[in-house]
Design goal:
3 domains, 19 helices, about 575 residues
Amino acid sequence: MSFSSLIFVSAFLPIFLMLYILVPDIWEKNLVLLMGSLLFYAFAGLRYLLLLIAMTAFAFLGGWGIEKCRVGKRSGYKAVCLVATVILLLMPLMYFKYAGFLMGQYGMFSETPVAMPRFVLPMGISFYTFKLISYVADVFMGHLDSQSFFDVLQYSVLFHQVSEGPIMRFSDIKDALHDRNLDAEMFTDGLMRFFIGLSKKTILANHLGLLVESFLPIHFLESSISVKAAWLGSLFYMLQIYLDFSAYSDMAIGLGMMCGFTYPENFNYPYIASSVRDFWRRWHISLSSFFRDYVYIPMGGSRVHFFRLCVNLSVVWLLTGIWHGASWNYILWGAYYLVFIIFENVVLKFGGSPRTGAEDRLSENEGAVDRGFRRFFGHAYTLLVVYFGWILFRFTDFPSLKNVFALLFLRTGSPASDEATELLLKNNVYFLIVCIVAVTPLSRIVAQEIRKAITRKISLKNRVQRREERASEEVGSKRGMGDAEASDMSRKRAGKGSEQAGENAGINGDRHSEVLDRVQKRVRTEARRAGMEEALYFAVKIALALVLFALSIMSMVGSSYMPFLYDQF
C-alpha cells in the first residue's frame, strides 16, 4: 500500500484520521498512530513487519547500552556498543539489497556459476535503517538520551515516512511525541499539502513515466529511436524523478501536519540551483544531512587539507551511490557527482569566492548584466550536469548507457526526429509546460504573496479596530463624565435655570451617543469584512484541494479518464 493507492486515500486514511481526531488524550492519539502505522506496514508482509520491530529492538537496546556506558564513563565499551549495533542494523539491508549483487559479481570474476537468490526488498528498509542508525549515533554523541521502546518504535514505524522517507531524526519529533497541538488551520494546511503531493504523483509524475517509456524505453533499439526522442525522453525523466520523489515528501509532511507534527523539508526546488553543491543542498536534504553529520564531519569534514578533503568526499559519494541501488551504474553516478563537487571545491579553495552556488558573494560594484550572466551560466551548467546525471541513474547496464550517449551525440546514424515523436510532443506540450512550472517555486511564491497580502490586510484592520475601540471607550467615558457634570450642575442650579441646564446635558449626551454608535458600527463592519476575506481564502484553498483530490482519483481510477486529463492538450 502506498500513499497514491486507492485503498489508502479512500479507506485507510479517512478511517485513521477519524479515530485519531476523536480520541482526546495525547497518549491515546499516540496509540492510534502506532496501531495505524503497524497496520500500514503489515500490508507489505507480516514477516517484514516483524523484521522492522526486531531492528527497532536492536536500536533501543543499543541506545540503552550506550547510555549506560556513557553514565559509567566507559568510553571504550560505548564505542564497541555503537559499532555492534550499527552492524546489526546494516545486516538486513546488506542481505536484502546487496547480497544478490555481490554474489553476481563474485560469480562473474571467479567464473563460477552462482545460483542467484531472489530477494523481495522490504518496504522502506533503506529509510528506517538509516533512521535507527541516526538514533543510536545521536545517543552516542550525547545529542539525545536513550528513549523508551514505545517511543523508538513510534519513531521507526511512523507510516508518514516509513516507506519513502524522509530520513527524519528522533529529535525532530521528540517533543511532539508527548505534547502537540492540532488546530483547524494546521489540519487544513496539512490536507492541502497532502493533496498537492498526491496530484504531483498521480497526475504529473505517473504520466511523465509513460511519456519517458514512449520516448526512450529502458530496453530500446537504436534504429527505432530518433535523436530528438532520446533528448526528450531524458528531459521527461529529469522532471519525473523530481516530481515523484518530492511528491512523497509533500504527502509525508502533509500527513504529519494532519497529526500535529512538523517535519523538515526534504526538497527545496533543486532545479533552480546555481551549482552542483547547491543542488545537493536542495535535493533529498535528509539524506545529504545524514551523510554530512554521521560520515563527512566525523571524518574531518572540510576543515582538513585538500587531499584529505577529496578522500572524505569520495567516501561520502561512494556511500551515496551504493545507498541508491545495488548496481555499478549507481556507483558511477556517485563518482560522476564527486568529480563536479571536487571541481567546485577547487574553485572555492584556489579561485577565491566561487562564482556559482549558495556561496556566491558578488561585489556591490559589479554590474547587473555581469550578475545576471553569472547566475544564468551557473544555473545552465548545473542543469546540464544534472540532466546527464539522471541518464547514468536510469540505465543500470553499461551497454545501454553507451548506446544512449551515442544516440544523444549523433553517433548511431538514427534520424534526427520522426513523425511519432513530433505528434507525441505536440499532444503534450502544454503538459510539459505545467510540469516545468511545477518544479519551480512559482506557485508557492504566488500562494505566499496572496497569504501575506491577506495577513497584512487583516493586521491593518485589527489595528484600526483596536484604535477605534479605544476611541469608543474614550467617547463613552467622556459621555459619562458629561452626564455626571450635567446632573451636578442641575442640582446646584436648581431653581436657577435648571430647565436650560437639563436641555444642554441632553444635547451633549445625544452627540456622544451618536459618535459612539457610529464608531461601533465601523468596528463591526471592518471585523465582519476581515472575517469574510479570511474565510474566503480558506474556502478557496479547500476547494482547490478538493479539485486536486478529484483529479488525482480520476488519474488513479484508470485509462478511461486519460482523454479528459491529457488528450485535450
